[in-house]
Amino acid sequence: MQQLAHIQQVLWAVNVGIGIILLTLLIARENYRVYPVFTGYNLVNLAQAVSFYIASRRWGYTSRNMWLFGWSSQGVVTVARALAVTELCRHMLARYRGVWALVWRVLCASALLVMVYSSFAARRKWELALPAVDRSLELSIAVVIVMLLLFARYYDVLAMASDRSLALGFCLYSCFSVVNNTFLDRFLYRYAGLWNLLGILSFLASLLVWTWALRNPLKEALPEEPLVASGVYESVTPEINARLRALNEKLSRFWKPREPRR
Amino acid sequence: MSFSMFFFTGLVVVLLLLLAWALRGPARPRGPEAVPNALQETGKRHVSFLPAIQQALGKTDFEFLAQRGPKELVRRVRRERRHVALTYLSALRTEFESLLRMASIIAKLSPKLAAMQEFERFRLTMEFAWRYSMIRLLLWAGLAPIPQLEDLSELLSALSVRMETAVREMGERAALAAKLASSLNGSDMDAAL
Question: What is the domain count for chain B?
Answer without folding.
Answer: 1
